[in-house]
Amino acid sequence: xxxxxxxxxxxxxxxxxxxxxxxxxxxxxxxxxxxxxxxxxxxxxxxxxxxxxxxxxxxxxxxxxxxxxxxxxxxxxxxxxxxxx
Length: 85
Prior knowledge:
By secondary structure, the chain is mostly helical. Helix content is 81%, strand content 0%. The protein has one domain.
């Protein structure tokens, strides 16, 4: 998949991409004592988006759904608490 398609697929903006590339370069420099250029950093970012992007995105949706269900349960109990007996 093309880089622009990946960015669009996950709703990443240009500033998001820049931040991610800086984080990748920083990690490799600090943790592995390797200096990466922009092309290598972009390839690593693309690799992770292609291999893990859908999994992470879907897991985030699952977490959001769990949060939403709990919130709706609270709202429902709050609603019934308004009844006067």
